Amino acid sequence: MSKVVARPLISVYNEKAEASGTTVQLPAIFKAPIRPDIVNFVHQQMSMNSRHPYAVSEKAGHQTSAESWGTGRAVARIPRVRGGGTHRSGQGAYGNMCRGGRMFAPTKIWRRWQRKINVNQKRYALCSAIAASGIPALVMSKGHVIDQVPEMPLVVSDKVQEYNKTKQAVVLLRRLRAWTDVQKVYKSRRFRAGKGKMRNRRRTNKLGPLVIYAKDQGLTKAFRNIPGVECLSVNKLNLKKLAPGGHVGRFCIWTESAIQRLNALYGTWREKSKLKSDYNLPQPIMTGTDLARLLKSDEIQKVIRRPRKIVRRAAVKRNPLTNMRALMKLNPYSALIKKSASAVSAARLKRKEDLLAKKRGLVPVTDKPAEQPKKNVQAPVPPAAAPVEPPKSEKVPRKKAGKPVKKTEDPEPMEATPAPAPVVPVAAQPAAPEPQAEAVTEAKSKKGKGKKK
């Protein structure tokens, strides 16, 4: 149930937008359940009933003489235009893939254009739309500017039904502070996209307030020239105007006699409708629409169990072929394998570079060890060298008296003497041949030579 207004009475405003002092009892239809799903469905079905049947001509695409060439000519078997002497001859025809051919599944006029709607369902949607028009939040969500409107639903006196000049209607809307909603319509005027521009539907604009009256005493002539403002009789309420586009929340201005007639039209939950046969207002499924307050009440909280604190979240599965961390979890040895593989590939590349350098006659690049940074350490000071004394066995030549000593050139620097060869022990040296044995061998060799001669 929609709690539209806490008060049971509605104030009536006169033509000067002042509270006249009279009040009207809030009709029961404003407390009817709001069902946007039913409103949207019924609006869609009703909009189908205003469609005009259309179809393409039965002769379209077949107003030519064409025949297939058959097989064996290396062309498609589509029917082709007969004759010659023109570009059209030999071209494909009839098919939906051909230029100048018919469309696929040509439209027919015996399509099911209109829809039948349940009467009770239409009335339910209408009650929901009227109930939603009394809730300021839903009206503002539809885009209407009602910030300064004195009351919702807005009811004016029946004297407004006697207006027949647009000037009077504009003054009334300005005094009711509803002219800002009309200004929104002026700013929203746009050119329609598509071919509707050529079909007397050139411009589009948003919608303004809807004036609902009981008797037309010139009121429609006063409001019909204001863009966005529409007029509707309370005896012929239309869902297309109360919920345009299938969305509830139209800004409605009611006359006093029109809003008093709603109880007679749709009845209440205690009394049936007087103008509709055997009809009552739809019963709401819930007596209180504040579901959050119901769930948090003590009566329900005592019965329901506590919420589960264990939250099981779906683990993110990483691809081990692309994610190294996931691969390390599955196979810790994979890091070593990867490291060894990279070392093998680096060695192979090094050998290849050395081979190319050798072929080109270049010095192969050797891997130099990284130079370590030198520390600031002072070098040790070498001890002072002692003067070398000549050996005692050597005799120092003395200078002869009276003869000057010849100046000799500085001797060349002596080369470093090689280290003495290791001394081999006597037992290890081969024995030298004796002189007597050599003489004996020479004598024998001479005797042999003499015999041969």
UniProtKB/TrEMBL annotation:
The keyword Nucleotide-binding does not apply. Residues 414-442 have a biased composition (Low complexity). One of its GO terms (cellular component) is ribosome. GO terms for molecular function: structural constituent of ribosome. It comes from the Eukaryota. Residues 360-453 are annotated as: Disordered. Pfam families: Ribos_L4_asso_C (PF14374), Ribosomal_L4 (PF00573). InterPro entries: Ribos_uL4_C_dom, Ribosomal_uL4, Ribosomal_uL4_dom_sf, Ribosomal_uL4_euk/arc_CS, Ribosomal_uL4_euk/arch. Residues 380-390 have a biased composition (Pro residues). Keywords: Ribonucleoprotein, Ribosomal protein. Residues 277-348 form the Large ribosomal subunit protein uL4 C-terminal domain. GO terms for biological process: translation. Belongs to the universal ribosomal protein uL4 family. This is EOG090X0822. It comes from Moina brachiata. The gene is EOG090X0822.
